């Protein structure tokens, strides 16, 4: 049977994790507003204390959602690396307090996004996006199509990462791990093929053409 | 590059099977039926609708089941994927959810509704792909080798499901046992329909004439087309 060689990568914007927690029961619109407010607060609140409070709030939301800590830490690895680099630079240029603020703001935002992505079904997300995209009807764009495109784009990010990791495995299997062409070219081709396949899959159900 | 030569067909039977070797053009023939592929000349009409000019309307009538369910299922869990198909019916979120669970139950996937798709078996994934296509309630279902990637047990299960559908079904298959149960069989070889007729004769023609011919590059080929009674 063909199919993914490995489970789909679940990074910071990873896949939905089924559950019955209060975070799962939260309407998608409310979850997205919460995420938006978190983003605004990272800008408005100044200083390390505010940033640490935001990070704590995101961690509490994560705990309430009942998501596995180990899986989350794994998913946050890229964000942790970026936060460490940014904090390192901030220490050198503006001092340790600013470094804490930068790192905590970044991690709070990514963790909040992960909680929303992990507790909000794509279906519910599409419903919200359809409502948000209604004004686009006046410029000739179908809200349902726009919403579907946005939702599938978000869904595609982990798939593309998975595809790239699989391509890397294939290059390694042939001893070509040091040749960037063996990774970049097949990964790009598979990404295009995947986009075409998604289009065909939607067309096969008569979706996305309203 | 020509994938399929001139073909003139009117398909009205409830069950039509298309058989042929790999690369013979049978998948292209199937894809013509819902406009996934458009003819370079001529027309393909589905209930009077032209696939080139009425593509969306055709695709609302004609569901297409791909060989690889991995390419067909686009959302992370079965419930989400079937619910995606149901968006066309303009249901409320709760009604869509309930209907999706009902459909999954009909396909024996009720307890897998929230399971990540990558954790399903190959057979379960193909059932899910079928559920997703049928959720839009097409009048005609075109299946491109729906059982090629399945083991014998799942193959029989999926074949049984396809046989029980109320819709008209056109199935491209390498499974001659399944093809022999169709009302009509088309044999495609090197881009031509070389046989069009009853199932038993079509299967025999494919097995005894097409498969007996040398492989491409080894010379020979299937002689002229034949139409069954």
Briefly summarize what is shown.
Chain A is an all-alpha fold and 210 residues long. Chain A has helices at 22-25, 28-44, 48-65, 69-75, 77-94, 96-119, 122-132, 143-173, 180-203.
Structural commentary:
- The complex is a heterodimer of chains A (about 210) and B (about 230).
- Chain A is built from nine helices and no strands.
- Chain A is globular and about 55 Å long.
- Chain A starts with about 20 loop residues before the first helix and ends in a 7-residue tail after the last helix.
- In chain A, helix 8 runs antiparallel to helix 9 (about 180-205).
- Chain A folds into two domains: about 15-120, no CATH class; about 120-210, no CATH class.
- With about 210 residues, chain A is an all-alpha fold.
- Chain B has about 230 residues and is α/β, with parallel strands linked by helices.
- Chain B has a domain at about 15-70 and about 140-225: P-loop containing nucleotide triphosphate hydrolases (Rossmann fold), CATH 3.40.50.
- Helix content of chain B is about 35%, strand content about 15%.
- Chain B has nine helices and nine strands.
- A seven-stranded mixed sheet of chain B has the order 4-5-6-1-7-8-9, sandwiched between helices.
- In chain B, strand 7 (about 185-190) and strand 8 (about 190-195) form a beta hairpin.
- In chain B, helix 4 (about 80-85) runs parallel beside helix 6.
- The longest helix of chain B has 14 residues, at about 95-105.
- The two termini of chain B are about 35 Å apart.
- The relative contact order of chain B is 0.18.
- The mean pLDDT of chain B is about 85.
- The interface of A and B includes residues 4 and 209 of A.
